[in-house]
């Protein structure tokens, strides 16, 4: 499977990044997006070069395609996405359970924008989202919620992603680390 799978485009929009405290979590959101089948990451508001550079380094080593954008207006991005025919999935503990809606979202061929927050998410996103989806009703983490949602969306097929470019590949092994240089 190519990143984006049957939907062509699956992007993750990260809201409310605070450079002084969220660098690691936001980088993990982007890495989870890439590893579990999305083909782009969008950082709302600020342009944190540390995050952008870390993700681009991973793409250069391990392959893509995977795009990274930053300094974008989240509201404008969501409106643009919907005007372009895509659908918006907002992950929040207040939404409807992932088990009930992931099959419906997966059945629609429309491109998907998955939105995750940091602290409080503005009402706008709850209202504009086609789907407000919860991964359980307990507060936890945007990283966990995103991983689980993408796994359900791609029905586990993300493990067959064929990354192009990059120069490293892990060979599965029972013990130790086997890393191969491509080509
Ligand atoms: N009260 C917030 C909320 O609306 O979910 C929790 C903030 S949490 C620190 C940051 C982000 O993690 C949220 O904006 C949401 O995207 C995600 N998140 C946390 N718990 C979740 C859950 N149970 N289901 C879905 N997403 C969740």
Automatic annotation (TrEMBL):
Record keyword Cytoplasm present: yes
Binding, S-adenosyl-L-methionine: 91, 117-121
Compartment annotation: Cytoplasm
Keywords: Cytoplasm, Methyltransferase, S-adenosyl-L-methionine, Transferase, tRNA processing
Cellular component, GO annotation: cytoplasm
Oligomeric form and interacting partners: Homodimer.
Role summary: Specifically catalyzes the AdoMet-dependent 2'-O-ribose methylation of cytidine at position 56 in tRNAs.
Protein name as catalogued: tRNA (cytidine(56)-2'-O)-methyltransferase
Source organism of the structure: Aeropyrum pernix
């Amino acid at each position: 499977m190519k990143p984006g799978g049957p939907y062509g485009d699956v992007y993750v929009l990260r809201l409310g990044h605070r450079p002084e405290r969220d660098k690691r979590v936001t980088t993990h959101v982007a890495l989870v997006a890439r590893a579990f089948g999305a083909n782009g990451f969008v950082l709302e508001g600020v342009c944190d070069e540390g995050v952008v550079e870390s993700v681009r380094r991973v793409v250069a080593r391990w392959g893509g395609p995977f795009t990274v954008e930053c300094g974008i207006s989240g509201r404008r991005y969501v409106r643009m996405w919907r005007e372009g025919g895509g659908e918006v999935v907002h992950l929040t503990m207040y939404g409807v359970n992932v088990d009930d809606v992931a099959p419906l979202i997966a059945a629609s061929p429309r491109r998907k924008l998955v939105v995750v927050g940091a602290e409080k998410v503005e009402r706008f996103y709850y209202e504009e989202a086609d789907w407000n989806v919860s991964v359980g009703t307990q507060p936890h983490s945007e990283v966990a919620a995103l991983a689980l949602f993408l796994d359900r969306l791609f029905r586990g097929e993300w493990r067959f992603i064929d990354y192009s470019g990059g120069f490293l590949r892990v060979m599965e092994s029972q013990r130790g680390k086997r890393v191969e240089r491509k080509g």
